[in-house]
Amino acid sequence: MVTSDQFKAHCEGVLARIREACVRSGRDPASVRLLPVTKTHPVEAALLAYGFGLRAVGENRVQEAAQKRLLAPADLRWELIGHLQSNKAKHALQAFDVIQSVDSPELATRLGRLAGEMGLRREVLLQVNSGDDPAKFGCDLADAPRLLEAALAQPALVVQGLMAIAPLSDDPAVADRTFAELRLCRDTLAARFGVALPELSMGMSGDLESAVAAGSTCVRVGSALFGSRPSA
Ligand SMILES: *Cc1c(COP(=O)(O)O)cnc(C)c1O
232 with 40: CB under 8 angstroms? Predict the structure, then answer.
């Protein structure tokens, strides 16, 4: 785990990177949110982020987040950024305020139905595999309209936008292309369905500049804040 001083320095460094990327593309730095990704780290990582004024963290496993959440301030928001198995949908709705990884019409329908039964409303993002990466979850670009249609049919879900992960690659053009495709997908869906879809969750430690240039509103950053993760 990083110390509090190390975390503060890392955080200032990442915020400066976001700011500079915004300046280069003529964007307002306030339009990009930093989501610290605390997966695999102890709850202290989330508490460090909270102490620095950040009010949301990203996690990729339901059980892990549910346990940490018990030990964290009640006004810290928890966002699911990892693949969700449908048999864990109910627990995910309990453990998370936001689900960024809704990746199939079936999952959207199930989450919406369960949230309704539980008397909850949940913000969601639709994960799209805009980098066409066989190793990544997310619906295919071609299936995004069907996924959005299913999510919009659920009154208990508030569809805020789209999420994508760039394929691992040494070529920065791969991330550029992935993020440009996600933005185009969002613009196309927003026009076709007449909805706003303001959120574009894209960019991580290694590619956040590219994502900000392409219009990211949420960068999900783990290792640049908390150091490398113990291999899971
Ligand atoms: C782990 C993870 C991140 C953070 O990755 P870093 O490279 O450590 O910044 C972002 N998004 C998702 C979906 C992740 O699983």
Answer: yes
